[in-house]
Amino acid sequence: MIKFEKNDLAMKSDPKQIEYNKLILDDCNPRLPKSLHNKQENEIIDYLLLEASTLELMQAIGENDFFIGEQLLVVEIENDKYKVIEGNRRLASIKLLHNYKLASVKKTLVKQVYDEAKFRPTLIPCLLFPTEDSIRKYLGFRHITGIKAWGLSEKARYLSDLSHSFSSSKSIDEISRELAKVIGSKREYVKRLLVGFNIYKYIEDEGFFSIRDLDDTTFFVGYISDSLSRSGICAFLGVNLSLENPLVNLNKENVKKLTHWFFEKNDQNKTRLKGKSEDLNTLNSILSNEKSYNAFDVEGWELSKAYELTKEYSDIVENAIKKALENLELADSLAHKAKFFYFSIVDDLEDIRKIALKIKRFKEEYEDEN
């Protein structure tokens, strides 16, 4: 069990030069998906090559040598071996610079970088810590609050791992408060990441709702955690972050819907919703409006189109007319350069005139009545 002592972050470590072949990858690293935990070294290296820009790092080390300022953080294990808790990409790169055959993906590129390498470092600068826990608490400070921030997914996985050290009787709120003190962050932020990861665990337990090609290597936990900063999405999911246990009223059916919107791809290989802030803000507004939510969820409207229904009709009319005018002005500016005009252009222009006159009449009738 992890004990959070006051001076943990100041715990001293010893610098050491260690032969690369005595260094072992951390097969339970929180940045690795669960399906890769406890796997063989070559499987982890393949994942890092595909997902973590390891090839570029291998090339940089091969060209410039290992930068002493990027020491690996390690703990000693049995048989004069050392587990690398921080720096697995760097270690994978070094191992590949000594043996390119470790890779079963990107083999041609790996071999090319191997052949062109000027340096193949053998003695690697490391900081030796007494325990894994002492490193992991330091990493929380460095990568969640500090200068080398992880993405939301990595942060959530890391905090979830640390949370397991607490008694099962403690609430998410209590655990978040303690973790926030350790890593120097805000309780609300830590709580949101933990809650998001717990929702992910439910989704994982449900087999990712049988969504094609979705598993723990393709799921972005950060999508869920970031969504929870929007009140409308929280209400939709039945999450109340003000409670000690925010998931007590989790709406599992809506969790399933959100997961499908994020990850289920159509025939054009596109999802209905992206995890970027713009889409999340738009969805947040849609979920707070019954008419737009019904259009998006039941009728299958695109996100932007359903969002229009959250506005007043007068705003929608204004925006539509301005867009139409903008497009007509563009057509007008290019018409004299056109070499030919499409067959039904006259009919279309007549329809535009009729629609414009019709809208004008609606406006005049409204003014007469008011």
Number of contiguous helices: 16
Average predicted confidence as pLDDT:
85
> Which regions contain 5 or more consecutive residues with pLDDT less than 50?
1-11
H and E string: EEHHEEHHEHHHHHHHHHHHH
Largest sheet report: 5 strands, mixed
Helix content: 40-55%
Shape, principal axes of CA atoms: extended
Structural class from helices and strands?
alpha/beta
Q: Please give the radius of gyration in angstroms.
A: 28 Å
* Major sheet strand order: 1-5-3-4-2
Number of strands: 5
| Tally of separate domains | 3
Distance between the termini: 74 Å
The amount of beta strand, in percent, is 5-15%
Notes on the structure:
The protein has helices at 41-51, 54-64, 88-98, 107-116, 132-145, 152-163, 172-183, 187-205, 221-227, 231-237, 252-263, 277-287, 290-297, 303-308, 313-334, 345-369; strands spanning 14-19, 23-25, 72-77, 81-86, 123-129. Strand 3 (72-77) and strand 4 form a beta hairpin. The protein folds into three domains: 8-145, no CATH class; 152-275, no CATH class; 313-369. The chain is 54% helix and 8% strand. It is extended and about 90 Å long. A five-stranded mixed β-sheet has the order 1-5-3-4-2. The N and C termini lie far apart (74 Å). Mean pLDDT is 85; it is low at 1-11. The chain is an alpha/beta fold and 370 residues long. Helix 7 crosses helix 8 (187-205).
